[in-house]
Each structure stands twice: as C-alpha cells, then as structure tokens.
Design a protein that fits this description.
Blueprint (H helix, E strand, L loop, with lengths): L1 H21 L2 H28 L1
C-alpha cells in the first residue's frame, strides 16, 4: 500500500511539473490534486499501519 501511495505522489509531482513546463493550468491542477490525495490517504492509513506492527 505504501508503494502505491508513493507512486501516486510521484506521478502527481511529475504531472504538475509537466504542467508547469507546458504552462497548462489544468495539468498542474491534476498533478497537485494527485499529490494531495496521496498525502491524505497516507495520513489516514498511517495509524492503521502502526497498530499492525
């Protein structure tokens, strides 16, 4: 699960960077929202991960 969340964050950063390079606003928003989603999901799953160990 951690790898999947990290993958979403990395793809979001790359997408946002591509949007900055191409100066396309909606690509920046898609990338930024992917990073935010990965951070929120990671924060929500963190307590559950600590309890399992």
């Amino acid at each position: 699960m951690r790898t999947f969340i990290a993958g979403i964050a990395v793809l979001g950063v790359l997408t946002a960077g591509l949007g900055v390079f191409l100066t396309t606003g909606w690509i920046i928003l898609v990338g930024a929202s992917a990073v935010v989603i990965a951070l929120v999901v990671g924060a929500l799953t963190a307590p559950a991960t600590r309890r399992q160990q």
